[in-house]
Amino acid sequence: MKTSNVILQSMTKVLLFLIMIFSIYIFFAGHYTPGGGFVGGLLTSGAILLLLLAYDLQTVRNILPVNFLYMVAVGLVFAIGTGVGSLIFDKPFLTHAFGDIHVPILGELHLHTATLFDLGVYLVVVGVTMSIIQTIGGDDE
Amino acid sequence: MSLLHLAIIAPFIIAVFVPLIYKHIKSVHTGWFILPLPILLFAYFSSYISKTANKQVTMESFSWISSLGIDFTVKVDGLGLLFALLITGIGSLVILYSIYYLSKQREKLNTFYVYLLLFMGAMLGVVLSDNLIVLYAFWELTSFSSFLLIGYWYNREKSRYGAQKSMIITVLGGLAMLGGIILLYNMTGTFSITEIVAQADTIINHPLFVAALLCILLGAFTKSAQFPFHIWLPDAMEAPTPVSAYLHSATMVKAGIYLVARMSPVFAEHTLWMGLIIAFGLFTLFWGSFSAVKQTDLKSILAFSTVSQLGLIMSLLGVGAAALHFDHPEYFMVATTAAIFHLMNHATFKGSLFMVVGIVDHETGTRDIRKLGGLMNLMPITFTIAIIGTFAMAGLPPFNGFLSKEMFFTGMINALHMDFDWSIIIPVIAWIASVFTFIYSMILVFKTFTGKYQPEKLEKKPHEAPIGMLISPIILASLVIVIGIFPNIVKPILVPAIETIMPMYEFDVHISMWHGFNTELFMTIGVIVVGVLMYLGLNKWRGIYGIFPEKLALNRFYDGLLDSMHKGSYSLNRNVMSGSINHYLSYMFIFMVVLIIGSLFGQNAFTFSTDNLAPIEFYEVILTLIVAVSSIALLFVKSRIVSILLTGTIGYMVSLLFIVFRAPDLALTQLVIETISVSLFLLCFYHLPKKLTDDPMPVKVRNAVISVGVGLFVILVGLTAHSTKLFDSISQYYIENTYSEAAGKNMVNVILVDFRGFDTMFEIAVLGIAALAIFGLIKLRRNGGKKIENK
């Protein structure tokens, strides 16, 4: 796919960041409003996918020199680690904790260990989607 | 966790370090590092002798899966202690023996001792666990370690065959036993043997009782090599001789006996228990001794002899159970005593005999009695040990085998007191089997050590074994004599064990060599006279072994069964797993539709109610129509890109439907998924031909039927699910608790990460596995695949 596509490429440069920011927003918003790790992860992969369609696989690899299979592993570690963490406090596996913490500058923060678990989901989803797409898309090389 | 638990776990802990020791300390035989463990354990368990002799039972519990009633409860009572002493005592001797038997230069000692320790720990677990599930776990571990040890010389075809055979048969029995354990749990609500015994009277009339009894017996019979499951034991002789002495004569094969003894207080009230054990035990006793005579391999003789002796002990336990069914229980109690006494004696003389055979094999290079002979002068010590062992096995005085054999005869004669017509058959079979036992014992010792010395047929020049190899059999042979002359020294171990099996009676055991001229003595004299005559005339009647048709042999049956199962599964696999996704999908769909529609019809569960239905909105009609039209159009499209776009259309419409139904989370996810999957299709599209097919699409009736069926099934299930409300929906719970319990306001997300976090965790794990699979499929293809990129 070496055809030059000026409009798509120019649009991508702007949209990529918008989608990325939106996906991060969606990820954190999941606790109170629609969103969450799964959708957030999918949106991020969508953004990367757009980059891939507008340019090519090599560009994506240069910008994001990440082995996405490792990302899957890291995500799983997050998810399972959150579960194991509760065992340390003698609670059943996967019991979450939450609370409000006052942080200077940022003010009152509502923190929840479920976010860590969701981060695991997010990483796995991005990792899985991107590794599948890279594997299939890169097959002709 | 108590010291007792530690004693059981210790072999496993040491096993972890064995490979390290083996790797770093090459100059010393690894066995020396293992040897202290069983000796220490033996000493430790010996300290319990005085406790159990005073009817003191030690119980220690360690919480494991308490919510399911599974705890690692250890119980030391008479029976468990007897076995624990056998396991550690014989274990020490066997390890000592193995140090000289297995060369440290040529053999892989690390694996050998790991397997052996694995077995030792597992066997201790079997005999000391009070919880049936824990017992089962250890039980299977003994089968497993036995499998590994039989296959120790895995490059030999016969070792692999023997290992597989023992595994298949004992694990089959083990699974049946698990079934029996679960049935017992259903009846009593506990896995604890102590508590089940306490409830024994109440469950005897339970409809599941007989089924549980049969399952448990199947487990015991396969493990203890009772006919017709005995066929694995002769093939297990491919294991190194120390293993045969340890697992396949002294301990593991007695696990079945242990189970029968242990479960006797539960099942012995039932006549079926008694009848089956007597019948199978006696037949095994006869068949084992009868088959042993025709063997030419020393270890095969011992293997069939072990089968026969196990049958003997089993039948004694059966006769012992008769005490609960007939008047005058004192007639039958002696049988239980004989069983336990013989079990102990068998371990001593059979252990020493196996070691003797190992020495002969080690020094001459063969175990074939046709090649051996005249070793008496060359190996005098080995010969003496062999004489002691075989004479004890044949039941001659003054050895311990004589005492338990006499007691065995007493038990079998007393079986005549059972009130049924053909009870005479029991002592008759017992006597005939004893004659054959006498004959093979004589073959074993005299064909090897007397007769003509044939050095030209031997691989090595034989000489007496090194002293280290002789220590263990000498100790065992001394025990044979000591117990024979002073039998009452084993009473503190013997009596508590018997009382565990028959807790309702008081046992007062007196064992002495001389009982006067009674029936038993005349039976023994008869055995000797007839046995000597038959041994001398062996060649004249050997022909009877040819009469038995080879086709009916159990091994042929086993091999045939295995072979046909192998072929059957291969052809099934080849026919079903065709590699065509079309086929796989049709199997799944057909199965799903038939199963669910069938059961809906069978249960008459179709209900259609139109209550609680919302009015159909204009948007919904439009969206559904678009979905329907796109789906139908998809069937007739010839261009690939159009079909991709149509699939996308369906997806986007469905996400719009979610919005109409006020499910923003679903809609959002569906929307993004659709975008990504369409892009993914486009990526794949690059590799594929533009047109789907050149020919007009053929109408495949089968696929049409399946798809219509799936559609109908989904509609029917959906309508029925809507119309049937068996219980309240769980959604109310989530609505109430989402904020208070999980401090979140988005219910869907809270369910995903918190309430049902387990689901999500495994789902993402599955996703990860799928990614790996796709990566593997594409990158590691045989044709055109390049090396995995490490980026």
From TrEMBL, chain B:
InterPro entries: CPA3_Na-H_Antiporter_A (IPR050616), MrpA/MnhA1/PhaAB (IPR005663), MrpA_C/MbhD (IPR025383), MrpA_C/MbhE (IPR046806), ND/Mrp_TM (IPR001750), Proton_antipo_N (IPR001516). Its main location: membrane. Signal peptide: none annotated. Residues 701-782 form the MrpA C-terminal/MbhE domain. The keyword Phosphoprotein does not apply. Keywords: Antiport, Cell membrane, Hydrogen ion transport, Ion transport, Membrane, Sodium, Sodium transport, Transmembrane, Transmembrane helix, Transport. It is a multi-pass membrane protein. NCBIfam families: 2a6301s01, PRK12645.1. Belongs to the CPA3 antiporters (TC 2.A.63) subunit A family. This is Na+/H+ antiporter subunit A. The lineage of its organism: Bacteria, Bacillati, Bacillota, Bacilli, Bacillales.
